[in-house]
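Review form for a predicted model. The reviewer records the input and the model, then writes brief findings.
Reviewer: anonymous (R2)
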Amino acid sequence: MVLVSTFENEVEAQLLASQLKAAGIDLKIEDDKTEGFQVFVFEDDVAEALEILETRAVADDDFIGDINTDDIDLDEFADE
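Model under review:
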């Protein structure tokens, strides 16, 4: 099996796992106590898994770009 991604928490790894499973990709998640949660797929599925991972990253970037911070008064949250 080939490592395709590492996550700091299990929730993120499970989110990717659900997308990979939906695409018919078999996978394994290992909890490396120092590196985080590692997602492995079979060599034949690496290209498709990386494509799903890339699409996921683009979708996350699109969401972050849509946040309008102009109306947020950060001084409201400052320590007094």
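Findings: The first strand starts at residue 2 and ends at 7.
Further findings: Helices lie at 10-22, 46-65.
Recommendation: see findings above.
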